[in-house]
Amino acid sequence: MLVFLIRRLVGTVPVLVAVSIFVFGFVRLLPGDPARLVAGPDATAQDVAAVRIELGLDGPLLQQYVRYMGQTLRGELGRSAKTRQPVAHEIGARFMPTLWLTVAAMAWALAFGLLVGVISGVRRGRWQDHAGMVMAISGISFPSFWLGLLLIDLFSVRLGWLPTGGYGDWTHFVLPSITLGAGVAAVLARFTRSAFVEVSAEDYVRTARAKGVPERMVVWKHTLRNALIPVVTMTGLQFGFLLGGSIVVETVFSWPGLGRLLIDSVSFRDYPVIQAEILLFSLEFVLINLIVDVLYAFVNPEIRLK
Amino acid sequence: MRTLRIVHLLYPTSAAPLSQTQALLDVQGLRVTFDTDRGPATVVHGLDLRVSAGETVAVVGESGSGKSVTALAITRLIDYAGGRITGGRIGFTDRAGVLHDLATETPEAMRRMRGPEIAMVFQEPMTSLNPVLRIGDQIAEAVMLHQGVGQAEGRAEAKRMLDRVRIPESASQLDRYPFQLSGGMRQRVMIAIALSCRPRLLIADEPTTALDVTVQAQVLRLIASLQRELEMGLIFITHDMGVVAEVADRVVVMRNGEKVEEGDVQRIFDAPEHPYTRALLAAVPLLGSLADQKLPVPFPVPDGPPPRPQDTVTDQPVLEVRDLVTRFDVRRGLFGRLVGRIHAVEGVSFDLRHGETLAVVGESGCGKSTTGRSIIRLEQPVGGTIRLAGLDVTRLNRSNEPLLRRAVQFVFQDPFASLDPRLTIGFSIAEPIHTHRLLQGPAVEQRVRELLQQVDLPVEHIWRYPHELSGGQRQRVCIARALASEPQVIIADEAVAALDVSIRAQVVNLLMDLQARLGVAFLFISHDMAVVERVAHRVAVMYLGQIVEIGPRQAVMGDPRHAYTKRLLAAVPVPDPRRRAYARDLDDSEVPSPLRAPSDMPTVAPLVQVGPDHYVARHHVGGLY
Amino acid sequence: MTRLLPRLVLSAALAAASAAPALAAKDLVIGVEANMPHLDPANTNDTLSQTAERLMYQGLMGFDKDMKLIPALAEKYEASEDAKEFVFHLRRGVKFHDGTPFNAAAVKTNIDRVANPDNRLSRRSLVSMIAHTDVVDEYTVKFVLSSPFGAFVNNMAHPGTFMISPKALAEYGKDIATHPTGTGPYKFVSFATDTLKVVKNPDYWRPGVPKVDTVTFRAVPESGSRFAMLQTGEAQFIYPLPAELVKAAQANPNLAVINAPSIVARYVAMNNMKKPFDDIRVRQALNYAIDKNAYGRIVFSGYSTPMDAPIPSDLGFYSKQGVWPYDPAKAKALLAEAGYPNGFETELWGGTSTAVKRGMEFIQQQLAAVGVKVTVAPLEAGVATAKLWNVQSPADATMQMNYGGWSSSTGDADWGLRPLLYSKSFPPNLFNIAYYSSPVTDRAIEAGLATADPAKRAVAYKEAQAQVWKDAPWIFLGVDRLLAGQSKKLSGVYYLPDGGVLTEDAALD
Amino acid sequence: MSAAAKAAGVQSPLSEFWRRFRRKRIPLVAGGAILLIILAAVFAPWIAPFDPAAPDYENVLAGPSLLHLAGTDVFGRDIFSRIIWGGRVSLSVGFVSVFLGGFAGVALGLVSGFFGGWVDTAAMRFCDVLLAFPGILLAIAVVAVLGPGISNVIYAIAVFSMPVFARLVRGSTLGLKQTVYVQASRSIGVRRFPLVMRHILPGTLPGVIVYLSLRVGTSILTAAALSFIGLGAQPPSAEWGAMLADGRSYLGVADHLTLFPGIAIFVTVLAFNLLGDGLRDALDQKLRT
Fold first, then answer.
1. What is the DSSP annotation of B405-444?
2. Where is the ABC transmembrane type-1 domain (chain A) (predicted)?
3. Does the beta-carbon distance from D11 to B467 stay under 8 Å?
4. D129 close to A (CB below 8 A)
5. How far apart are CA B68 and CA B235, in angstroms?
6. ipTM of model over 0.85
7. Which CATH architecture has domain D30-44+73-288?
8. Measured between CA atoms, how close is B588 to chain A, in angstroms?
9. How confident is the model over C155-201, as pLDDT tens digits?
10. Which fold has domain C40-47+58-167?
11. pLDDT tens by residue, C188-217
12. In D, which residues are within 8 Å of C364 by CB distance?
C-alpha cells in the first residue's frame, strides 16, 4: 500500500509539471504587454519595468520558468495587481470557504446520489427507478445559477428560512451546497445506477444468490461494493466539476471563495492572482485524484495488492 | 492409444434403476419464457427431468438448447435473469422429506433452499467469484448463513472445504482474493462454496468448459468423488460428449428447448435413437480412432462415402522456423521498470512442408498461439529466424513484407469476431486482393465469387453482412478470405474450437479438402487432440513456451515419450462410457507460470531423436540430461 | 474625485435622515456591491473603498450629508488670495486608534507620503501641486503650492488625503492597507475577503457618536441577493439598490427607499480627433438622436434625470444649459449634411455590469434609428485600462465611443471638468478620452483654478460649461439618482451624491 | 458466444440500433424536440413574431400575453422571439464547440490509441492536464487570454471537450486494435492509414455520437454559465444564458425575464441528455456518463 501511494505520488509529478508550464505560459500567451496592464494607467516606464520584474517576465524564457518554479515552490506567488497584497494572502483567506462549500456539496451529493442510484438500480424499471432517473436527468440539465436564484427566491425571500448568501454558520451552507451539488448528485445517481445494474449482471452476484444470500446482502455486500469501484473514480472527476461550479455558485450566493476571486481577477486582469488560482485549482484537483486513487485501491484489492 | 482400451470395472457405470429410488428432483412439463424486447420467447418447452439421490444426470445439447436455462429455473435464479417459469412443476424433496414445488415457492423459501438443498457450480470460474471479497469469506458466508454459526466456525469450515477440494496450503489461501488464483483453483473454490452446506442436489453448468484439459480432468474427478461422498444428486450440463461419457449415469439430450432423448449413458452411446443424438455422436471425434492410420482422414459424412486418407505432403519445406523466441516484458510503475518477462515462445524450431499439416498442441499459456502470431508478426519475436520458401523474412522490410503477408494467412478462433461487422462479406474477402493489388476492377468480384464457391458458400453472400451468417458460415468466409491471396501457408489458430461439434467436422473437412486441392500447408494450432488426430501429419507439443515433443502424428499420439505429452493425452475425455478415466493417474499439480523474473532465464531443453522424425525434449535434471 | 469603476455607481440618493428612536443597538450590516480591494486611502480608486475608509479615517476637511464642505480634523483654514498658500488650524486632543496623538507633524508625514513619487500612490495627483508642507506649530500646518489651485481645500476633504497614524505607517509600511489606523468613529476589527468589520471607537472626539456597536460591510455582487439580504433582515442598509427593484422595496412596509440626486453623470465620450466624430455636426446629431427621457426610464427604471449641463447640478459652480432636445429628424439631417446620409458604423465601449450593458444596448438601439450602426463591446476593467486610460498619445487611441460615468468626489466643478475635458488631460495624464480640445474651455478651466475667489471661479466655470455644451464632445445622457434600500429601523446613514455613504451618525432602533 | 449476443447478431447493427432506439419513446420525443428547436432557430426570421432587436419603449417588462407569449424585456423586446433567435446562438455554441472538440479529440484519440508508446503517453498526459482543469475554469482561462465573446467561448468549450473525446476514442481504439478483425486485417498486410480509417474509426463512432449529443447539452450549459458571469455572449446577442443573466436582477419584479430563457436552456439540455441516453442504450450499453 505504501509503495502504491509513493508510486501514485510520483505519478502526479508530470501532470504538475505540465500544469505549471501551462500556468507559466498563461501570462506569456496574453496579447500585448501584461506588465503594462498590471502597472496601471499612471505608471511610468520605470514602473512598468519594475512590474515586469515582479511578474517575472524579464530574461530568457527558460530562466523565467526556472525562477517561476523556484518562487512557486517557495510559496512566493507575487502580489495582486489590484490590491497590492501578497497573492498567497489573498488566496489563503478564500481557500477554506471554497473547500468547505465543495466538501458540503460533495457530501450530500454523494449520499443522495448513492441512495437514489442504488434504489433505482434495485427497483429497475419500476416507478422508483423512473422517479429517481427523472430527478437525475433534470439535475444535470438544470443551469445551476438559475437553480440558485430560484432557491434564494423561495427559501430566503419568500419563506425567510435560510440566509441569502455569505459565509457563516451551517445555515449559510444549505442553499449554496444544494445548488452546487445538484448536478453532481444527479450524475452520481445515474452513474451509480448504471454501475449497479452492470454489476448486478455479473456472475458473482448470481453466485451469491445461488448460495442463498438474502437480497439485502446481495445488494449491499456483493453488488454495491463492486459498483463502488467505478463510482469512486467518478466521484473524483466530479470534484473537478464542483470546483468549476463553485465559480458560478459563489457569485450567486456571495460566497467569499476562490471562485469569486477568480472572476474578479479575470475582469480586472489581475494576472498574478489568476495564475496562482489556476495553479491552486489544478493542485487541488490532482490532490483529490490522488485521494480517489487511494480510495480506489482501498475498495479494489486487485489494485491494492498488485 | 490402444493401451487405454480397457473396460473399466472398478465403478459400475449405471445407477440404481429409477423405480428403486425416491426421486430427489422431479421436473414435469417445465416451460421457461423470457421477455425480450421482441416479445416473450419460450426457450424451454415442457421439459421432464428426474434426478435421484446419488445419481448423475448429464444434460447435453448444443448452445441455445435451453440446458442452462433449465438449471437456472430449477434454482429459480431465473427470476433474476429476466426469465419466468410459465408452466410445469419442479418437484423437490428436501432433507426432511417434504415435497416442494419449486416453480411456485416464495422467493424467501427458495433462498433458504439454495445452498443447503440445491447448489450450483457455473461455467466461468474467472467471473463467478466476487473480486473484492476474500475467498475464505465467500465460502464462510454460505456456511454462516445456513448453519447459523459464527465467524470463527465459518472460517474453520471454509478451511476444511478448501482441503476437501484439494487446495494446497488452505489456511493461507483463505485470505487471498480471486484474482490471485488460477482458473482451476477458482473452480475448486466455487465447488467448495457449492458444497459447503452439503446440498442434496448439485447442478454443475459446464463447470469444466473454460478449463484446460488436464485441469478439466482434475475437476471432473473431484466432483465425482465428492458426489459419492455426499450422496448428492448431480445434474451435469455440458456440450461435450466426452465429458458425458466420463461422468453421467443417465443422459438427457436437449435441442431447442425440448428433450429429444433420454436414457442410460451406455444405451445412449451404444444405440442412440434420435437422429439428433446420432448426429451429435457422429460428429464427436473419437481420440484413438485413427491410431492405425498414418495419414489424416476427413470426418465421415453422414450418408456419404467413407472418407479416404489424404497424402499431400511434399519434401520441400515452405516455412522454416529456427530458435524462435517471443517474450513479453512486464513493466510496472512510473518509469516502466521491468519486473518480469513472459517467456511465451522460447527457442522453438520446426519446418513446415508444402501440403503438410503440422499441429501445435498444448494447454492455454503454452505459447502455441504466440508461435503462430509471431510468424505472421502480430507479435514481434525477439530472436530466431523465419524463412519462407527459402527467403529470410525474420526482419521485415518493404520488399519481403508483402511477400509474407500474401504467402502466410491466419484464421482466427472466433468467427464472430474476426469479420468487421460494418463491412460486407464481399469486401472482407476482397480486402487482401485490394491490399496486395492482385486484381483490379470487375475481376475482383469475379475472384470473390470463386472463393465463395470454393468454401461452399452461395455467391449471393457477397453482399451480405457478417451478422446475417451463422458461425460456421462466417468461418468459411474467413477461410475464403485467407485463400484470396493464394497463400502457401495458413495458420489456423484454434480455427474450429468455437464451433459446435457438427459444424466443426464440416469445417475441418473443408480445410482438408482445400489442402488436397491447393496443396496449402497448415500450421494447425489446437488444444483438441481428437481433431488434431484427424488433420495432422505431424504434431508438436508445447509446454511453457517450448516444444517438448515433435514428430509424426501417429508416433506422438500413439507412443508419447515426454511426460507432459502423456499427461495431456491421458486427460482427454473419451466419449465412451466404458473407458472412464477414474483410474487414470492424474496429479493435482498446476501448470507453472511462464512469467519469470528478468534475471531468471529459462533453459531451452534440447530435442533428441527417439524415432523416425520423432524428437523429445531432454530435460536437465540434477545436472544431467 | 473618482474615476468610477462603472459598476460601482449604479445609482445614488441622498439620505433624508429618517430618524428613529435608538434602542438596544447594535450591529449594523451594510450590503455593498463589490469587494473592497484594500483600505489604503492614498491608493484607492473606487468609491466603495473610500466609503469603507471613511469608517476609520478622516481628512482635514470633510463633507456633511449634503456634501457641503465642513471642517473635520482641521477646525478652520485660511487661503491666500492667489490660491498658493493654505494654512490649516488643527483640532486639538484628537488621538489615532493606536493612541498616537494627531498633530501637525502627523499631517506633514501623511501629505509627504502621498506626494512622494517613490511610493507610487495613485492619489498623488491630489497633492502634486504642493511645493512643501510646513509644520508651523503643534496644531498649525501650512501648505505652499507651486502653482495656484483654487480647489485645494476640496482636495483636503478627499479620502486620498485621509490622515493615517504615523506610527502605524512606520510599523506596517505597505501593509497599512490591511491595518487601517485612523482617527475615525470606528476602529478596525477584521477585513476578510468580502467582509469588513469595525467596532465603535469609544474615544471618538465627537461626543455622542457612534451610536452603533459594530458596522459590517458585506460584499454581495448579485443585486438580487443583496436586496434579498435587506428583505430578510440580514442587512439594514444596501446600496446601490438596483433601480428595477425599487418597486419591490417600496412594497415592503419594513423598508425605506432612498432616492436622491447624485453627482454621477452618464455620457458617451466620442473621439473628437477621429472621423467621423471630428465633425461637430456628427456629435450634435448623435446628441439629437437619443431620447434622454427614455434613457432614464428604460435604463434606470426612471431613476435618472437628463443631463442639462456638462456637470451634475449638485456640483459647485454648476451652470444650467438646458436638456439637449430629442429630434431624430434633425439628427438625420445633420448626419446627411456631414456626409453620412446613410449613417456609419462604429463601436461603443463600456463596462461589463448588467446595468452598463443595458445602457449600451439602449444607445445602440437609438442610434440605429438614425442609421448609425453600433457594435457594443463591453470591456473588463483591465482591458479598459489598457485601451482607454493607458494610451500614450491621441494618435494611438482606438476608442471611437465609450459609455461611462463620472463622479467628482471633490464636489467641485474643477474635478468635474478638468480631468475629462481639458486639453492637457489626455491619457495617460488624466482622463480626457474624448480628446476634446478647445482653447476657450482650456482658458476657462485654468482661470477657475487660478483663484480661490468663488465669484471669479463661478464666472470661469460658467464659460467652460457653455463652451463644452456647444462643442458636444460627448453624448450627454443623464445624472443618476442615488438609490439605496434601508430598514426603517435604521437612521443616520447618509448616501452622498458622489455615491459614498456616511455612517458616522448611524443609529439602530 | 452467449445466446444473447448471437440473437443480437441476427440484425444489422444499424437496423438493430434503430429497432432498439425506436422502442423507447422518450429519446424519440427528445430527438423530435431537438429537431423542432433546431428548425425554430434556423427558420427564426419566419417563425419569430417580432424582430428580436426591435425595442418598444412604451411596452417594457410586460408579462406574458397573447401578443407577447413570453412577455417583453426591459427594452420592450419580445422575449419569445428572442428565445427563438437565441437558439441560433446557444445551439451553434453547443454544436460548433463540441464538433471542434470532438474532431480534435477523435483525431488525437485515434493516433494515441493506435500508435501507443510515447505518442500515447504524451497525448494522454496532455489530456490529463486539460482534464486537471475544471471545464469552466479552463474556459475562463481561455477567455482571460482571448477576451470575452461568443467565438472565444466556443474555442474555450472546444478545448475542454477535446480530452473527453480523445480518451473515449483512445479507449475504444485500444479495444478495437485488439479485436480479431483488426488483427486479421493487419495480418493480411493492410497499411496503417486504411486500417484505421476502415476498421477502427467506424468502430469508435457509436461512442462518439453518444458523447456528441451529451456534450452539446453540457456546452450549452457552460456557455450559459459563462454568460451569466459576464464572460460569454455580449449584447445585443440573445444568447439564453445572457438573457437569464440580464433578467436576474428583475427576479421578484418581472420573473418572466428569467423564467422563459431558463426553461429554454433546461428543455434543450434535457432533450440532448435524453437523446444521448437513448442513443447510448441503443448503440453502446457499456458507455457511461
1. HHHEEEE-S-TTTSS-TTS-HHHHHHHHHHHTT---THHH
2. 95-292
3. yes
4. yes
5. 11
6. no
7. Orthogonal Bundle (1.10)
8. 25
9. 898 888 999 999 999 999 878 888 999 999 999 998 876 789 999 99
10. Dipeptide-binding Protein; domain 1 (3.90.76)
11. 998 876 789 999 999 899 888 888 999 999
12. 235-236
